[in-house]
Structure formats: structure tokens, C-alpha cells
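INTERNAL TRANSFER SHEET
From: sequence group
To: structure group
Subject: Ceramide glucosyltransferase

Please process the attached sequence and return the structure record in the designated field. Keep the field labels unchanged so the import script can parse them.
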Amino acid sequence: MTSIYAAAFFCLVLISLNILSIGIAMARARPPRRPLPAPEAAPGVSIVRPVCGLDNFCDETLGSSFSLDYPVYELIFCVARANDPVVPLVRRLIAANPAIPAKLIIGDEKVSQNPKLNNCVRGWDAAAHEWIILADANVLMPKDYVQRMLASFGPTTGLVCSMPLGSRPQNLWAELECAFLNSFEARWQYAGETLGGGFAQGKNMLWRRDVMEAGGGIRALAAEIAEDAASTKLVRRQGLIVNLVDSPFEQPLGFRGLRDVWMRQVRWARMRRKTFPLFYAPEIFAGSALLLLVAAYAAYAVGGSIAAALIAVSLAWYVPEALLARSVGWHFSWRMPFMFILRDLMLPVIYVDAWFVDNFVWRGNEMSVREEEPSVGKG
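Return from structure group:
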């Protein structure tokens, strides 16, 4: 009988934590009612955008860089190779917007095995302003993008970030990616930051130059396989915190393949396991798989209906998540509840995979999270 009480208590705790995290996200992720105005005496901001290849909606996401309602900013695009197919697009956008200070830097500096970090180094060095944003090429920037980043920078802040918000999915697997990015990953990141455990997310990062330089400069981010993990540690060593932007910025998805979604999630999981293993360990409780297993055991032990128990627990788990997506305007369709379930069936496999597999391929680059793997260009 004790085991049944323990199982019931386990289910109650997990459902309560799930609802708590959803409540936090509902409060934090509502889109602003109106665009934020630029602050008085707005500081100059440099926006560094590493580019590589042509992503879905690339013309729109990179083009949004030139439409910001902010008085003083510059754009620095960085690409590793002159023959990259994104180069003509960037040059065309720069030529079409002569009023916006912008440049394209070709050629990276290999400070690590992370190609994105290598691509950002020269852009950081070329930045003219004290406030610097590192923003991925597939981020869609609203007109008040800079204002919203600056608004989250407080007295104890070392770094402001925004996770990607999946939008405009055009097939089933893109909706699966929305199920991962939005009401799961973004939601738990908001909950973690609210409870004092904010982590950097490399999609959008607002730095004050002196914070980065006090931690050893941008090349110090080569200490970790992931630049966002290194950023988190650099900031925390200075007694500062990572803050998240209220309401995340969009990443339009378009079409996705199942393999694309899978590889992205296992890559992120392997890097989280490597860089923050103690925080990664409890991630197994974030999805519903263990909850449903324990609920089925409890129903079996008392001679009840396993199917009824699974349905009841699933409703308690997924209805609040659906309400979150609907209430804050994130993508939601009749297929999304099924994508929530599929995601949670994948999560235990991803979790176990991350403990045993070290290697992955990102944009054609073979990488490893093994400590004995030397970083390219280090030393």
C-alpha cells in the first residue's frame, strides 16, 4: 500500500510542477500589447549576425534586421566562406538599405570546434558600440527587438537572452518542432529563470562589452562546446545572472523533416549533458513518460482501469499546456496535442542517448562533447 501512496504522491508532485511552470510561462510570454519605444538617450547597439547557408525564410529574417525602430544601431554579418550561398542575399540587403550602417565580414577565426563561435569572433571585434547583440540568422526581429532586449537588462544582469519561438510550421514535423521549442523548452526555461536558475540561450544574446571582457572576452567562450553554456558560466563567475526577454522572438520554421527535428534535439541534449550534467540529470521528469508509467502502475496495483488512469493523467498534463499555447498566441492546431504526446515519447530516448553518445554533426561540421577531443585552433 505504501508504494501506491508513493506513486500517487509522485504523480501529484509532477503534475503540480508542470502546472506551476505553465503558469509562469503564461505570465512571462504574453506578447506586448504595443511596441516598446526606444529609451531616451538610447545607447548605440551593434548586432552581429553569423550566417551560413540559406535557411527557410532567410530573406525575411535577415531583412528584418534593417527595419528596426531604434535610432542608433549597426549590423555586422559574418560568414566563414566567400562562396557561401547566403553572401549574395546579404549583399543585396545591404545595398537596398543604405541608411542602415551594415557590413559583411568574410572569413572566420578558428578559436574552437564551434563553427558559430568562430564565425562571430571577427564580428565582435569589429563592433563599434558597447552593447552587442549576437543573433542567429533565422531569428525574425520585430521592430522593437532592441528595446525589448534592453528592457530586460537589470542591475544584476550579465546577459539577456531570448529562446526561439517556433512559428509558421508548414508540415507535421515542423509542428513537432513547435511542440519542443514552445510550450516545452521555452516554458521550462521561463520557470527556471523565475526560480533563479537562468541559462543563456544562444539564439539571441545581448551583451554589455565590459561584462564579456571581464570574463576573458569572446574567445573565452571556446571553453565549452556550446557558446551559450560558456556564456552562462562566464556571467555567473562574475556574480551576475542571465535574464530572459518577456515574450520570445520568432523563428519561422516552414518545412521540417523528422530527422531534422530529432538531430537538433539530440544535439542540444548532448551539449546540455556535457556542460551542465547536474542540471541535465532531472530532465527525465520534465516530460510525461515517467508520470504515465507510474500512473499505470498505481491503477494496476489497486485493480483499477489502466486506460482510465492514463486518460485522466494525460488530460491533467496536456490540457494546461494547450491552454498555454492558445493564451499566449503560440502556434496551435488540432494536431498539436498529438505532437505533445509524440514529443514526450521521444524525450526518454533523447535523454538516454545524451548520456552515451558524444558526437554529432552540425551544419556539416563533425563535433564532439568529449573532453579529450581537442578544439580546433586552440592552444
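Handover comment: DSSP finds 13 helices and eleven strands in the chain. The first strand starts at residue 45 and ends at 50.
Transfer complete.
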